Each structure stands twice: as C-alpha cells, then as structure tokens.
Amino acid sequence: MFAVTILGNNSATPAYGRFPTAQVVTIHEHQILIDCGEAAQMQLAKYKIRRRKINHILISHLHGDHYYGLIGLLTSMGLLGRDTDLHLYAPAELEKIIEAQFAVSNITMTYKIHFHALEKEGLIVDENKFSISCFKVKHSIACWGFLIEEKKPPRKLDKEKALAYNIPAAYYNALKEGNDYTTKEGDVIKNELVTLPNTPVKKYAYCADTIFFEEIIPTIKNVHLLYHEATYLKDLKEKATQYFHSTTEQAATIAKLSNAKKLLIGHFSSRYEKLDEFLTEAKAVFNNTDLAIEGVTYIV
Amino acid sequence: MFAVTILGNNSATPAYGRFPTAQVVTIHEHQILIDCGEAAQMQLAKYKIRRRKINHILISHLHGDHYYGLIGLLTSMGLLGRDTDLHLYAPAELEKIIEAQFAVSNITMTYKIHFHALEKEGLIVDENKFSISCFKVKHSIACWGFLIEEKKPPRKLDKEKALAYNIPAAYYNALKEGNDYTTKEGDVIKNELVTLPNTPVKKYAYCADTIFFEEIIPTIKNVHLLYHEATYLKDLKEKATQYFHSTTEQAATIAKLSNAKKLLIGHFSSRYEKLDEFLTEAKAVFNNTDLAIEGVTYIV
Questions:
Q1: Residue A76: which of B13, B63, B141 has the nearest Cβ?
Q2: Of these four, A25, A122, A133, B276, which has the most CB atoms within 10 Å of its CB?
Q3: What ipTM did this prediction achieve?
Q4: Any idea what DSSP says for residue A111?
Q5: How many helices (H) and strands (E) does chain A have?
Q6: Domains (ranges, CATH) in chain B?
Q7: Do the chains contact at B72 and A104, CB–CB below 8 Å?
C-alpha cells in the first residue's frame, strides 16, 4: 500500500467546511504526515487514521494554514501516552515556536521529538522501505516540496522454484537482492532461475505552495502521483503570480512536462465554493487529474 | 441579550467529536471570546457566529486546549480583511509566541492587536455597556477567571410620563442616571415621577481550569450564570486534585456557596464518552445546572 489521504484541501483560511492543508502518506506499515493545518488532529480522528503510526512529519513552509495544527497534534500525542520517537522536518524557525509553546504549558513530553531543519535539497529520510528527499519550490517565503520513493529489492522471489532447487529460506533475501546461490556441492544456481523482475518502485511528489516553477521538473520527473497546488482557476493567473501560487492550468502543465502518471490538485482558494471547474480546467491540459477531496485516499 | 455560546467543551485533547475549550459571550451588540482551543474558528463558522463583532478575546491560561486556536483565528481575521482593533487579554508569555508566528509567516496584519498582559486581579475592560474583571483561580500554571458584568443606567425611562411633563428627549439620559428635571419656569420634576427602577445588572463568571478553590467565592458571589469546569466525575476527586481540576460535586458546591442562580459545567475529560452522569451528580448538589453543550446558547 502506497497512498495519500487528504485531511485538508483549502488554502489560507478554512471555508465551506474545507480544512487547511494536511495529508497522510501511507507507505507499507509507515505513515507520513505532510503539512498540518489547524484541526488536522480532528481530521485524523474523523477519518479514523491512527496517529501512532505517524513517525515522520514534514512541514513545507511556515504559513499558518500549513502548520497551525502541529502543536495541537504533538501535545495530544503526548497526552495519549505516545512513547516512540517522532521525526519532524521543517524550516528551522519552527523549532523555537514549538519550544516556546511547550515551555509555557509546563507539560513534560512523554516522547522525544527530533527536529530536523530543512536547509538544503536532497535526502532527508532513508528508511528500509522508503526514502524522502526535499526540494525547493518557489513561494513568498521559503517553501519545500517532498519526494517520497518506495524501496523494493531488485528481484521478486519465485518461491516454487526456490523450493525446487532446495535453497534454504535464510538465503531468500540474498536472492531478492540479485545474488546467485551456490550449493554445498559447489553448483551455482543463477539468480534468474529462481527470481522474477520486481515491479518498479513508485514515487510520490508533493508540491505546495508554489508559483509555476519549471525548475522542479527534473526532480519530480516520472512520478506515479504528483500533488501540485492549484489555488486559482486559470483566469486568475495574474493573482496567482502575485501571491506565488498556481492555477489549474499551470499545475496541469507541470504534470504534463514532468511526465507524471497522475495529478492531484488541491489548496483551493476560499473564494470558490464549488470545485468542478478546477477539474475541468486541469483535465483539459492533463487528463489524468483528480481533485484532492478530504477523507479520500488516492493510490500512488 | 446577555448569553454564552459554547464552541468547545472538552478538556486537554479533542475526543468524541468534542472540541477543546472556547466560548462566545454576547452582551448587547458586543461579542467576547473566552479561550480559544484549536479549531475555534471552524466552530465559529459552524455555528454562524460573525467574528467581526468580536473585539475582546480573553485567554485564561497557556495550556494548549485553551489557546491553540487563537493564532489561526487572528490570521484568518486578517486574511478576511478585518480593520478594527482587537483587544487580547492573556498571560504575558503569549505575546512573544504570537509575534514569533507572525514574524515567520511574513504577513502584514490588516488590523491592530492590543495585547494586555494579565498580571493582577481587577478591572480589565470598562466599556459603556459592560465591564470585565479578572481573578485568580488555582491551576498547575497561572490561570485566570473572568467576571463579566452588564452595565445599566440606574433608572428606566417611563416615556409616556416624560412626554406628559414635556421633558425634552435630549434630557432622557440624565433622567436614566437618576437626575431630576428643572423646567424653564424653575419647577422641579422629581426623577421618580418619570422613571422606574431598572432591572438589576446581570453577571457572568467563567472559572476554568481550577482545583476546588473557595477563595473565588467572594468575587463570584450572586452571579446569574456561573461557568465552572468539571473535568471529572466525583469518584475521581483524587485525580482532580492531583491535576488541579474539579469534579462535578466540587463545581456544584462552588455554585451553591457563591449563591449563583445557575451553573454551567464543561471541560469534560476525554475519558468520558457519555456526559449524563455529569449532570446527575452536579444536580444532586446544585439543582439549576446545565451541561455546556457545543453550539448551544445559555442566557445569563
């Protein structure tokens, strides 16, 4: 399972029941929270997402609609008895803000928060089954995009064949890594005989908030799912540029140019009550587009 | 109209769809927000309370469930174009936290926030139609209660009589203040002839979060409506004491001893899904009790 669940799809301020930006990426047994707008913890409860599995939180930038819900979530995690470490990746200034809030409350946290300041592009998380890197997008303040990549061993085991060749189970992982097997008698069983090519690793890229910015394309090239902000409809291109945001058409153009398999658009301006037009406009440029709808899970 | 609308009635962390503490006091054409737990701005929208009328915000103490929603509300007020001044009364440390959050977002506020640090007991707001004073309650960190008092002129005008005596309308306010009227001819029309005694001013006291603390009784004596926290049922009296909170029975005892007309209890612990028992236990000590239910307005 590699998928994204939307907790909030609105920009700047809540409107029409839509919440500010937050989403949870599920990758195998891990959950990664990207951005944490106000009331993200209520949205997690509403959509029955267990917060215990969240060990990584990524904050793209320090506009309130992307992080005002973080302190509440961190506090509740402690009140509910969390004891496992949490890794938080965010612009450096956030650390002091969180520390100041914990300091005045006089509450001792039951778990450790490792704060990692986002400073340069590149790898930030390197786990067994996935990695995360960050890259710069272009907004009115420093803002980061994130690329989450699944990790798979190069080969898939053909278990029937491995059994037929009497290869011990302890050697299966080595087979998945592409190694041959040498029997006690010295016979070499070529890897290709007992394994199959694995499916390619999948990639998810998250790009919010940003002006139309082609420099990100090499980094997000060929992703299976691209989340790109689309704050405005295409007629408000000038306003989008003025506020360092994107239109439907611009988000779809980035998807097209980066050869994404699928596009997810969100961060809708509070000026719009209905969202249909967002989908129509984006699809005209890049057909495989979905609207980021709260509570819905999109497979990468 | 002098009434309290509950936006959040839960303690510490949201649970069972209940939100952390926040409530709006409506007094004539003014609205006062007391405490501002996370997502208070969403609750204001849900219950269709116009935030433009809120010119005073009171924060009792700096535990997150009483103020994590403040920064989001202040930000949204700016984004929605507020231009009237806002007065914020809170423990001193909050000012720096808010300033730090505005600083990193690089957003210029469209309105002025006057920060008033709560430092000593007494009058903090003195408006034409109401006043607010603060008093100390006893919690694990510094915590303030608030007393909101309506102001009414001493006398009510008996308009028919005033017309019969040919008293000019420009003099009506002086009549309400209890003054006699002297005609051009020098005749004195005694105030009692053209006015009636006014109804007594009403008072609302807000007490959260606090251990059972009898020292507040002289301050809140005879209030028409007393909000007092009741985090736990009575069997958890020891836990209440340990965490500087109150039980149902303790809240009701304060209401009884202070001769309140009515008691409103809230700040329910997340350990309770159902609230019926809170009401039963409190009523056994002080019959005129209501549960603070989100979205409901209670007349003072």
A1: B13
A2: A25
A3: 0.90
A4: S
A5: 10, 18
A6: 2-152+203-299 (3.60.15.10), 155-196 (no CATH)
A7: no
- B108-163, pLDDT tens digit by residue? 889 999 999 999 999 999 999 999 999 999 999 999 999 999 998 889 999 999 99
Contact check, Cβ <8 Å, B42/A62 = no
pLDDT band for B76, please (50, 70, 90 cuts).
very high
Q: What is the pLDDT of residues A56-87, one digit of tens each?
A: 999 999 999 999 999 999 999 999 999 999 99
Asked if A102 reaches chain B (Cβ–Cβ under 8 Å), the answer is no
Nearest to B97 by CA among A103, A248, A201: A103
Residue A106 has pLDDT above 90, yes or no: no
CA nearest neighbour of B265 among B243, B219, B234, B221: B234
pLDDT computed for residue B153 by the predictor: 87
* Distance from C-alpha of A297 to C-alpha of B1, rounded to nearest angstrom: 46
| Residue of chain A nearest B243, judged by CA positions | A107
SS3 content of chain A, % helix, strand, coil (to 5): 30, 30, 40
> pLDDT value at position A199?
87
- Which residues of A are designated catalytic? 65
Reported in sequence order, the residue ranges of A151-208 that DSSP labels E, i.e. its strands, are: 155-157, 181-182, 188-189, 195-197, 203-207
Q: Nearest-CA neighbor of A38 among A61, A14, A4? A: A14
Q: Indicate which of B10, B13, B95 best probes the interface with A, i.e. most A CBs within 10 Å of its own CB.
A: B13
A246-278, pLDDT tens digit by residue? 999 999 999 999 999 999 999 999 999 999 999
Q: Given an 8 Å threshold on Cβ–Cβ distance, is B72 in contact with A72?
A: no
Partner-chain contact B19 A42, CB within 8 Å: yes
pLDDT digits (tens, 9 = 90+) for B197-224: 998 899 999 998 999 999 999 999 999 9
Count of all residues that appear for chain A in the document: 300
**Contact residues on chain B for A15, CB-CB shorter than 8 A:** 45
pLDDT higher than threshold 90 for residue A107: no
In the structure encoding, which two tokens stand for residue A197, read together? 């090519």
Q: Which of A194, A180, A230, A238 is nearest to A210 (CA)?
A: A230
- Nearest residue in chain B measured CA to CA from A14: B42
Q: Tokens 């190069």 — which residue? A: A154
pLDDT at B173: 93
Cβ separation A14–B76 shorter than 8 A: yes
Lookup: tokens for B245: 């909170």
Question: Burial level of B240, CB count in 10 A (0-12/13-18/19+)?
Answer: buried
At A200, is the pLDDT very low, low, confident or very high (cuts 50, 70, 90)? confident
Read off the pLDDT of each residue in B28-57 and give the average, rounded to a whole number. Answer: 96
Q: Do A129 and A151 contact (CB within 8 A), yes or no?
A: yes
- Residue matched to tokens 């054409």: B29
| DSSP annotation string for B138-160 | --SS-EEEEEEEE---SEEE-HH
B119 and B88 Cβ atoms separated by less than 8 Å? no
In angstroms, the CA B51 to CA B26 distance is 12
